[in-house]
Amino acid sequence: MTDPLALEPILGPRDRARPAFNDELPHDERFALFEAHVTGGGKVEATDWMPDEYRTAVLRFVEMHANSELMGVLPEREWLMRAPTLRRKLALTAKVQDEVGHAQLLYRVAEDLGKPREQMFDDLLDGKTKFHNVFHYPTVGWADVGMIAWLVDAAAIVAQQALRDSSYAPYARTMRKICWEESVHIMHGRDVVVTMATGSPRQRAAIQDALERWWGPLMQMHGPRSPRETDRDLHWRIKARTSEELRQEFLSIYVPRIRELGLVIPDPALAYDEAGGTWTYTEPDWEELRTVVTNHGPMSQARLALRRLARDETRWVRETILAGPRAA
Amino acid sequence: MTPANELEAWEVFRQEKDGDPMRHGGSVMAPDAELATHYAREMFGRRQESVRLWIVRRTDIVDLADQDLLQPPLDRSYKKPGGYLMRDKLAAAREVSGQSKPKARSSRGAPST
Questions:
Q1: From the list B2, B47, B82, which residue is nearest A11 (CB)?
Q2: What pLDDT digit, counting tens, does each position of A176-189 carry?
Q3: Is A327 on the interface with B (CB under 8 A)?
Q4: Could you give the C-alpha distances from B25 to A33, A165, A176, A179, A209, in angstroms and in order?
């Protein structure tokens, strides 16, 4: 005889994997289900239904990220032919290749959200979309290459690690791959900086000078403080942390590492407040940030011009690919 | 005029080391398998992070996400190890037999606690 207990369900009913918002429902009901899913930590795939508000917000975020990867190689590429040793040249070349690869991966994520890649390239060149502030500045010496690879990438990775859990699953997966590669760039950059910091007086002076020029843009990079409640990207869980949280984490990890090298951070107000558990610092120049990201930075137009030139000069490749098989 | 090629999405799966499962890596846009292979190699194998790639035209993938088939709302707990909960019954059996609980075996690493 069967033990009647054996027929009793023991495991709870499993969550049904297909989110309810994918069903045909009146828009408001669907929207509410989607919002509850996402704000409750649920993931969204490219093929899922999503409200326009969400699609637009993810697209804007990913497109800006892709633009920054693409434009971010331009300051560094200036030093490919001037790298001090063959090994440094190989490492920098690999980094540039990686960053362009990240742009490719991210433009793929954005394309799947409905915006054609060519349109994204047009908008970037027309100034309709932006790229990160730090890539609007000149690189005046090899020390800048180390500063960018170490601290700019470090500030970026702090933000990117928080994106590995993004509600938009294709973006989150891409970020896992990107973070892995970025960690190599940081090591490369730190090695450049440490080498110069332990080198000749001129090298030490050059690295200190680079830190002084890059510190302002680094502090602006994550953006002004904004209240958690009104941040739409946080609401949709596209990102997980506020600008200020990211800046605080960056300072916690990197201030000690910068000081370890005997470098002086050009902010006399920078201090760790033991009681509050936070860093205090001179208010970053938000006017400069606004000026720079609207393409009025010192190198904005030159970088866009180079990007335009590269796009024009490679047009024949895209046209050849799209032209179809050659006539016999 | 020759017919224009259309770019289309190719999904890329990668094997990290021999014996590992193929895992989805991402996708590339290409007009044909040959160029898709070049892109896939650049994007997912440039750093020796893969020993094999599968490059599949997205439209060739058969997607089954019918939850009535995959997650039927019936109790299937008898198909899973967790569906068999014997703790109380075993305690009752030990009560009758007067035996104590056997020690966990350590054949596979540390004994489970």
A1: B82
A2: 989 988 888 999 99
A3: yes
A4: 29, 17, 10, 14, 41
